[in-house]
Amino acid sequence: MNGHYAIAIDGPSGAGKSSLARDCAAAFGFLYVDTGAIYRTVGLAAYRRDLDRRDESAVAALLPELDIRMSYNAEGEQRMFLNGEDVSEAIRAPEISICASDVSALPAVRAFLLEMQRRMAWENSVIMDGRDIGTVVLPEAELKIFLTASAEARAERRVKQLEEKGLTCDYEEVLRDIRYRDEQDSHRAAAPLKAAEDAVLVDTTAFDRNESFALLCSLIRERLGLEAQA
Ligand code: DC
Question: Model-level pTM?
């Protein structure tokens, strides 16, 4: 792709895509693009306007008013801006996860965000994570990984993550949200969550983060012929 490499990592919520993609990007010198954060930013905007997030015309009418930008801070961390405001923390609230899943089912929203994602991959070597990166956004990616884990394992990891950020949460509620999103993200008509035919399936239920990281690094080395940078 334009002299750049693209690695697509798709899979359900909480499979560890973000942390693994971030670590692999740092190891191989790629830019990490978290596309869920972009959908979350649209979800937050719809939530703040108190819109019916399943009403495509209401959400579509909001889109032209949204200036969504992404930048990377000195630590290489992706930050999201909505009309100039840094919303990187606000988009992580559990209620915004549901809003993001709702708006992401709308074709108007997907079309609105497609170019932005493709431009990132055109301009950089990227590891991009999401739901439809290997199938729709970057079908020519050199390596596609479909990363999954059981819903229970994903809920446990999410609870831990939220607690580390000082947010209190209830395991059963997190598991319910994960199941709601799995169902909705996999069954929507527009770009549903599914593995590309040529994706490598990786189930991390029984792996810890280091084991999953080692596996992904070996896939990158084998498929792209690259070595991790020191
Ligand atoms: O990866 P995440 O949990 O931050 O994503 C939030 C929601 O956005 C998720 O429920 C599905 C949606 N999403 C999507 O439809 N397509 C993507 N490429 C990324 C996320």
Answer: 0.91
Ligand 1 centroid–CA 230 distance in Å is 32
CATH 3.30.1310.20 correct for 6-219: no
Tell me the β-bridge partners of 82.
68, 85
Helix H or strand E segment including 50: none
Averaged over successive runs of 10 residues, the pLDDT of the chain (230 residues) comes to 89 91 95 97 98 96 97 91 98 93 96 96 96 96 97 93 87 94 91 94 94 97 89
Q: From the alpha carbon of 117, which atom of ligand 1 is closest?
A: 18
Task: Tell me if 80 CB under 6 Å of ligand 1.
Answer: no
